Amino acid sequence: MVTTTKMHTNSNLGLYLVTDEASCLGRDFYWVVEEAVKGGVTMVQLREKSLSTRAFIDRAKRLKDLLETYNVPLIINDRIDVALAVDADGVHIGQSDMPFQAAHRLLGEGKIIGLSAEKQSDVLEAEHWNLSYLAVSPLFATPTKTDTEQPWELEGLQWAEMNSRHPLVVIGGLHTGNAREALQHGASGIAVVSAICSAPSPREAAQQLKTIITTPEPFK
Ligand code: TZP
Ligand code: MG
User: Fold this and answer.
1) Of the bound ligands, which one is closest to the alpha carbon of residue 178?
2) Which of 16, 41, 145 has the most ligand 1 atoms within 8 A of CB, as the residue to mutate?
3) Could you give the residue numbers annotated as active site?
4) Confidence of residue 45 (pLDDT cuts 50, 70, 90)
């Protein structure tokens, strides 16, 4: 297989938790995140679509304090202003959010910037930027987010791996049953919402995913 030389990343990909309070099944949001981190999550994205700016910042501050104890980076979804306000470790932007150059100018050097790629042209355009990672989104169809483009599926992921110099994170429908396949098709990191947030034990769910990510595939 042809592979491009991957850029070095300043982010700790691996097991990436994307938060969604509605997926936490009524349990305390911070408890779910802390359990997930204890289970091995390496990066957390605070994704809030309906909070006021004030409430978003309050939540981001509290989460930052929590994550700092574990040395786990906090990434803010969409909102560069919120990331700056709490001095988060980085941002995750989508195709209709602030463009990469503007986000980079505002954040300065040293911050993590991840971008979602929903289609092949997004992957090719992203070659112009020095992203920390590119998220192949969604990899599979997922009830957690239904307003998406066509899922990439494994063949699409493999295409992205061959055509991008960025480390790839996959999101959408990932769980213990398909994470290894995603890694084998070029993913450097696995991002999940429900596989951890909705699990009976978020800590055990994270541990199981982490084991898959850190255990090399047995030789066949
Ligand atoms: N972006 C693309 S799919 C998705 C997001 C935020 C949701 C992923 O949720 P799940 O439960 O891990 O499938
Ligand atoms: Mg967005």
Assistant:
1) 1
2) 145
3) 47, 116, 145
4) very high
Tokens of 10: 């300043």
Q: pLDDT for 64-101, tens place per residue?
A: 999 999 999 999 999 999 999 999 999 999 999 999 99
Buried b (16+ CB within 10 A) or exposed e, 120-134: eebbeebeebebbbb
**151-183 pLDDT tens trace:** 999 999 999 999 999 999 999 999 999 999 999
Residues in the chain: 220
Q: Which residue type occupies 193?
A: V
**φ/ψ of residue 103, rounded to 5:** -60, -40
Measured between alpha carbons, how far is 183 from 48 in angstroms, rounded to an integer?
27
**Inter-CA distances, 152 with 52, 86, 190, 208, Å:** 32, 34, 14, 24
Please, which residues have CB within 8 angstroms of residue 72's CB and are 6 or more apart in sequence? Answer: 12, 37, 41, 42, 43, 44
Closest CA to 164 of 135, 122, 124, 129: 124
Residue 138, ligand 1, Cβ within 6 A: yes
Smallest-distance ligand from the CA of 22: 1
- Beta carbon of 171 within 6 Å of any ligand 1 atom: yes
Query: Bridge-partner residues for 114, per DSSP?
Result: 92, 133
State the distance from the centre of ligand 2 to the C-alpha of 198, rounded, in angstroms.
22
Cα of 2 vs centre of ligand 2, distance in Å, is 31
Distances in Å between the Cα of 54 and the Cα atoms of 61, 86, 107, 114 are 11, 12, 20, 24
